[in-house]
Design goal:
With 339 residues, this protein is of the alpha+beta class. It has ten helices and ten strands. The strands form two sheets. It has a five-stranded mixed beta sheet with strand order 1-2-3-5-6. The chain has a five-stranded antiparallel beta sheet with strand order 4-10-9-8-7. Helix 1 packs parallel to helix 4, helix 5 runs antiparallel to helix 6 and helix 8 packs across helix 9.
Length: 339
């Protein structure tokens, strides 16, 4: 366990709680599924090593910083597992595996967004993506770099490479203009970008710590980029709507045809946090069945985003900086919400 966790700021601790609870939730859901399917011994045998040690550390850390979460997390996992079993052919499941960090985040892209794997008796595998979030909020589904967003997720379109180049050229212009303005505000010489003189002057690289008038310059630099992305997606949708829908699947969290996505929502009830609110589930079949048409909404300049309506789903596309705004590598955050 990283020693500096003890000294992290409030915002850093909140981020750690979100990360740790996600990992623990995945394990608890997997364990409850195995118990309900009466294959608990198989599940335990296939779970151990570094992942078991890491989860034990996460549990100890959360117990200190958010004991309410530790008490309620098993209940949320149980509700999720029971609801998920109602959607599955449970008699055909042979084992349940927890992916942990060994999935796509660890370089294994075979199972895309999967958090647990259901090993079936016919030797097939059903990947399951698990989400845990507050009721009525957007659910994060994908984070991607702007510089490869179009060419990676819309590669089936012939124009994707050209559109990506146009987007990257615009991003460079916006970034350079933003950097120039900030250097002028800080009375620093500008040499085409940020260098060590910025931090040597005692200036932050984190957007949330900038002075408001400087942060506004950073925020404005995202707006032409998100506008260009929206413009490109409108063109692609117009050229081939069916191909466009398929291209959106990974952004919604359905990176593989057989992927299942299960979301557990929690809320505050009578002052008690993390109370089960509702369960949601969909897969590529349900997505294709529900989506009759797609509407790309207007740009929201105040948050550098726009939304795509797909049946009952809203997919939000938002431009944000990487950890440091001094890098030209902006990112896209994708999230979904039922409306």
């Amino acid at each position: 366990m990283k020693e500096t966790y003890l000294n992290d700021s409030a915002s850093q601790k909140e981020a750690l709680i979100n990360e740790f609870k996600g990992n623990l939730f995945e394990y608890l859901v997997g364990h409850q599924l195995a118990r309900s399917l009466q294959i608990e011994s198989k599940f335990i045998q296939s779970f151990g090593g570094e992942l078991r040690t890491r989860l034990s550390e996460y549990e100890s850390w959360i117990r200190v910083h958010d004991n309410d979460l530790i008490l309620e997390l098993p209940k949320l996992a149980s509700e999720t597992a029971n609801n998920l079993l109602g959607k599955l052919e449970s008699k055909k499941i042979e084992n349940v595996l927890v992916m942990g960090k060994s999935g796509s985040a660890g370089g294994n892209d075979n199972f895309k967004e999967a958090d647990i794997l259901l090993l079936m008796k016919d030797k097939s595998v059903k990947p399951v993506s698990l989400k845990l979030c507050k009721a009525n909020s957007f659910v994060n589904t994908k984070s991607a770099g702007v510089k490869s967003f179009i060419s990676k997720y819309f590669s089936s379109f012939n124009e994707s490479s050209q559109f990506q180049k146009e987007l990257n050229d615009l991003l460079t212009l916006c970034y350079t203009d933003m950097a120039s303005q900030l250097h002028s505000m800080a009375s620093l010489p500008f040499n085409g970008g940020f260098d060590q003189s910025w931090t040597q002057a005692g200036l932050t690289e984190l957007p949330g710590q900038l002075e408001p008038h400087m942060n506004e310059v950073v925020i404005k630099s995202y707006r032409p980029v998100i506008s260009k992305i929206r413009e490109i997606l409108l063109i692609l949708q117009e050229s081939d709507s069916e191909l466009f829908i398929k291209s959106l699947r990974p952004l919604i969290g359905i990176g593989k045809e057989e992927m299942l996505q299960a979301t557990c929502y929690h809320s505050v009830v009578k002052g008690k946090k993390y109370q089960f609110h509702s369960f949601d589930y969909f897969d590529s079949f349900l997505l294709d069945k529900e989506v009759r048409d797609i509407t790309i909404g207007e740009q929201r300049p105040e948050v550098s985003s726009f939304e795509i309506k797909l049946g009952e789903l809203l997919l939000q596309i938002r431009v944000k900086p990487m950890n440091k705004f001094t890098s030209e590598a902006y990112k896209i955050n994708c999230s979904i919400k039922k409306h």
